[in-house]
Amino acid sequence: MSRWDDKTWVFDGKAIGAPVNTVTCIWDFDLPDGTTLFADQHSQLLHEARHFLWSLFSNRRNGRAFKASNAGRIFEGLRRLLKWMVEHNYACFGELNNRASERFCDWIVELYASPSRTNHADVDDVSNLHVSGETDPRESSHLSQAITGEIPGVHDEAKEEDLGATTSNGSPATRSESDPEFEEIPGLTSGTLFNSLSTWRYLWEQRLELTSVGVTSLQAQPFSGRSIYKLSLDLVSRVSKQIPALPDEIAISLMNAAHQFIETTSEDLIQAVEGVSLIRSRNLAAGARPLAMHAEVSRFLQQPKLSTPTNSAKPWPELFGLKEISSVQELRVLVDTLVDACTLIIQAETGMRLGEICALPSGWDEQTGLPLCVSRRPSKSGMLDLYFVKSKLVKNRPMPVEEEWLLAAAPRGTAALPDAVRAVIVVQKLLAPFRDLAQPETRKFLLVTLAVPRSFPTSSAGITEPSSVLIRLGQKQFAKSFVDWAKVALNEQTRPYVESLGECIRTHQWRKTYAQYVFQVDKRMLPAIARQFKHLSLAVTEGAYVGTSASLVSSVAEFNRNLTTDFFLANIRGTASKQEGRLAKVMAKYQPEMAKIIDGLADREARQAIDAWCRDRDMKIFFHGYGKCIPSIAPTEAECHKRAQTVHWANRSPNFTWREQSICTGCFLFLADQDNIENWSRRYVENATTWLEAQSQGRANEFRVAKARADQARTYLINLGAPVPTVEIANAR
User: Fold this and answer.
1) Cβ-based neighbour number of residue 648 at 10 Å
2) What is the pTM of this model?
3) In what order do the strands lie in the sheet containing 374-378?
4) Higher pLDDT, 545 or 374
5) Is 407 a residue whose pLDDT tops 60?
6) Cα–Cα distance for residue pair 337/332, rounded to 1 Å
7) Phi and psi (nearest 5°) for 221?
8) Average pLDDT, stretch 141-167?
9) Which of the four pLDDT bands, split at 50, 70 and 90, describes residue 662?
10) For residue 68, which of 107, 5, 10, 17 has the smallest C-alpha distance?
11) Of 11, 126, 405, 601, which is most buried, counting CB atoms within 10 Å of its CB?
12) Can you tell me the distance from the alpha carbon of 447 to that of 466, in angstroms, rounded to the nearest whole number?
């Protein structure tokens, strides 16, 4: 039984089977100033914290008293607040106010976004957890963490009855309302931050109870009264925008290590996996004893051609530092590592989200000699072979839709395949024997999870769908084991990665690394990056990916000004491509008047004049996949602001929450041109297909919206001078 003055409180009432840390509160933790709460200068803070925590279980003023099983979770949030208070010189709860709560939010964002803080002991991000005692992936594979049970420290806030949250219209809150395209961070959810923010709410709710025992609590409602759940969503969005790209030295070291591992091991490991699978299939069909089957597998793997990789004089264990383990365990470790290397290359060289990589379909196209998810076609110039990878896009879509991402490019007719294409091929071949064992719903994925640690599955029960958790942990393990950190240049940017042996790497960083690399190579590629990332708005790419680098912010602004200048100059001179939309008609109407701005000027002077005209009026183009808008032309006419009831003469950007294709097309400030033909063509095909299928089933009246959208897209394509795709449905009326 714990006493009030004990350094550790253990509450009675631990749930059966639950770990003891769910009911344990350890007060003797380290503080940023090198002391603990038991130091004299923190005695008041310790006194107040104890009374506050106990009040939540003894006399909670708002809602039911918490159960003992909540103690560990609540204490975790309190511990984080206490550490922050000491670091920022707050001596007691009475000193906390609304401004302090906002500072706490800023600190939380920095804690999760900064690589130098990512490995902070107080960060409970799933992607940074280190299971106690895990020193070797062969002894306690990160695979088993991803497959079995919950990882310690991850909380399902939705299970708490009093933690439900809804949006303003009563529907469940699922993402930040202020940023409809916010990028989800793998391993970081609103629930991760909810616990820390809730401590402030509890302090406010318990203020009267604390006053009754002589403790002064918050004097004003924290966070300006905002919903804790919505605030946690907004903070995740802020973290997303502030997480930096990987430093060049880190990205290059990781990619070089992955390429080298694939080159060194892939052919031998594919051969070994195929051989082991054949032996197992033959023995299982013959009803052989397990020991006999294992012995045959071991003899097969110990052959000289398999025990030592091609082009190497060293055997696998010596080459990769494997411990004394069985040949089957050795093969399993190498297979997992090869998959990790391949997924790293795919993500690094496409910028795809983890969910999109998990959704890659399996299969082989005998005609092209490529995986079914990979296609090849010539570039517009005919100089390059472009390789595209097909997957499912879920982000900002009500249902998953099939999309393409540029995977790689090579000079036309080159026989050797690009490395990113080879990575996909390796995964397709390496995991093929296991896909054949899987259930049909699992078999369709390129990546499958082998849910049997330290060995290989022999039935469908041991094969599950792809796991984004596994990919994250795998990339960290690969970085730790195969990057020569001693050779990485040490500076302010690389230090956190080197000192943590890659533990602070976030898979989300690959998207920013990809975006900033492409933009630095050619600033005109910003729209192409937005298309690759499937962003509905160029503003998202600009603000959350390229614009996160301080050195590139001015380049982004300059690039946008140049695009805006080019747009007006082309319209004034009559050299613009065909355009459609209400803004196109306005531009045509005022073209003679605007031509006076550059009348009699040479090209350079004309550009300077238009650039100055745009700067004076704060003209800026906002790009969408389906068109463009310039709110500065007539701020009060923006249809998105009208719908949101946010009309104001000072608006210089769209209302991103309300902006979508059906609203924009009726806006005074919108137009589409040749850059948007692909989007309108796809919109036509999708809606025309839906309409024809409904018509063939006698349900045409239910899908009149699809018919209207198809007709609109067809009109746009015709007016833009683009061909209208042919859509045919079997048995259509």
Assistant:
1) 10
2) 0.65
3) 374-378, 384-393, 401-411
4) 374
5) yes
6) 9
7) -65, 130
8) 35
9) confident
10) 10
11) 405
12) 5
